[in-house]
Amino acid sequence: HVQLVESGGGLVQAGGSLRLSCGSSSGHNGRMYCMAWFRLAPGKERGGVVALASDGGTWYADSVKGRFTISKDDLKDTLYLQMNSLKPEKTAMYYCAASAGACDMSATFYGFWGQGTQVTVS
Questions:
Q1: What are the pLDDT digits (tens) for 6-54?
Q2: Inter-residue contact 24 to 77 (CB < 8 Å)
Q3: DSSP per-residue codes, 29-72
């Protein structure tokens, strides 16, 4: 059973930066085919932010290209999301997800989810 734990959220002013982390309590991150970040904002549907495949392929939502960067430290079995130039509309709960199969921005492919970390941009 894969348990994902996010951290790094918080309150930041517009234009600021945050780095989110996603660790696996079972050490399974490195074995997943795909890791991704999703977000859920009040009144909106859950949406994909970025996905990272085991072969290094990435998929970024158009709204974050050039400002957000996904990376993974295999030694620490930790996934990261560096968020720069944050805007208030990016306020949301951010979730880490893992897929043992396909890799894209569709949440239906991801069988493992963290509890989320809140990001608030003022």
A1: 999 999 999 999 999 999 866 555 567 799 999 999 999 999 999 999 8
A2: yes
A3: GGG-SEEEEEEE-TTS--EEEEEEETTS-EEE-GGGTTTEEEEE
